[in-house]
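ARCHIVE CARD
CATEGORY: sequence design from structure
SOURCE FIELD: tokenized fold
FIELD CONTENT:
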């Protein structure tokens, strides 16, 4: 236990209170699971919410209020209490709790910025109910970029042997072509190239770059974005020494022979890249926000309202997200984590 007293502290925001976030966070009290983490884990949530969900689902373990100076205790989940605005019922969204959800993110972010926490891991939120509360919100990625005044961040999902980053994220499909500009592609590639080295230890990453249109535009017959937007950026960055393959047809880019030529994929829009990744890794993939001044990872799934309160939600993605955050913290410090 003494080894963990100086271990990095990872903040986990429990997300939408009507979803599965609270109960997958409760699984972190399991001694067998906790032994996987050479770090201290603190869950940001309403303490009463966790207590009620734990009692209803007969989860093992105890809850304890977070205090930085206390040594961790086996079988105990450390909780940084943030009060709900209204009682939460599993599976039933309530816009009244949208500001609570954002308060969890704000507290985790401020702790990372101050050095209290080494990284933040996020359980799922529900974009629709936050917007129903009158709060414009398109996702964690965009929200954290705005709150940290980061001009551009990159959403990347990892799992199933794949790493897939995106030029555009949560946009209606009709808005995508206008958002795929030379500036957007170049800035995304620069961030991806840099962060593959910083966060994954790959010094000269090979990046597979998708086209926007079917068959990567087929020489201009199915669209001109590959010729006018994507290819010129790739040429400039190759001249700087980056290893970039593309623009590639997205329908064959995820075949094994092509994937073996790269360390990660850059897709132009959300479903172009993430459909294949989630097929390969659903439930055990993670989301990483690249380009932020902090380390942030997340589960790769939604709030799963239909499972909330059932005790059947799989915590696998959350566990991998925490493990990856710990590895990134260690890599940033110049060493891989040692098992406590």
């Amino acid at each position: 236990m003494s080894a963990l007293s100086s271990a990095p502290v990872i903040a986990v925001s429990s997300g939408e209170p009507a979803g599965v976030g609270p109960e997958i966070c409760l699984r972190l009290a399991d001694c067998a699971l906790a032994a996987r983490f050479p770090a201290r884990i603190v869950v940001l949530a309403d303490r009463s919410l966790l207590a009620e969900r734990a009692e209803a689902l007969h989860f093992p373990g105890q809850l304890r209020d977070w205090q930085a100076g206390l040594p961790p205790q086996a079988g105990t989940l450390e909780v940084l209490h943030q009060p709900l605005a209204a009682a939460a019922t599993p599976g039933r969204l309530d816009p009244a709790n949208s500001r609570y959800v954002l308060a969890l993110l704000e507290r985790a972010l401020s702790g990372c910025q101050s050095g209290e926490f080494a990284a933040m891991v996020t359980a799922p939120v529900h974009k629709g109910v936050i917007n129903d509360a009158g709060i414009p919100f398109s996702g964690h990625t965009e929200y954290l970029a705005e709150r940290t005044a980061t001009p551009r961040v990159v959403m990347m999902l990892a799992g199933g042997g794949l790493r897939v980053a995106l030029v555009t994220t949560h946009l209606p499909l009709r808005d995508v072509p206008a958002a795929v500009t030379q500036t957007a592609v170049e800035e995304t590639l620069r961030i991806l190239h840099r962060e593959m080295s910083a966060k994954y230890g790959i010094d000269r990453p090979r990046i597979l770059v998708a086209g926007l249109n079917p068959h990567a535009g087929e020489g201009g017959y199915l669209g001109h974005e590959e010729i006018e937007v994507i290819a010129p950026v790739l040429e400039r960055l190759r001249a700087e020494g980056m290893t970039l393959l593309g623009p590639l047809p997205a329908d064959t880019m995820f075949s094994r022979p092509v994937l073996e030529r790269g360390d990660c994929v850059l897709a132009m829009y959300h479903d172009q890249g993430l459909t294949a990744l989630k097929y390969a890794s659903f439930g055990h993939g993670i989301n990483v926000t690249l380009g932020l001044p902090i380390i942030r990872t997340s589960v790769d799934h939604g709030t799963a309202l239909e499972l909330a309160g059932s005790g059947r939600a799989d915590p696998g993605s959350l566990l991998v997200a925490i493990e990856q955050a710990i590895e990134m913290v260690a890599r940033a410090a110049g060493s891989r984590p040692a098992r406590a």
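CARD ANNOTATION: The domain at 152-290 is CATH 3.40.718.10 (Isopropylmalate Dehydrogenase). The mean pLDDT is 92.
SHELF: design records, drawer C
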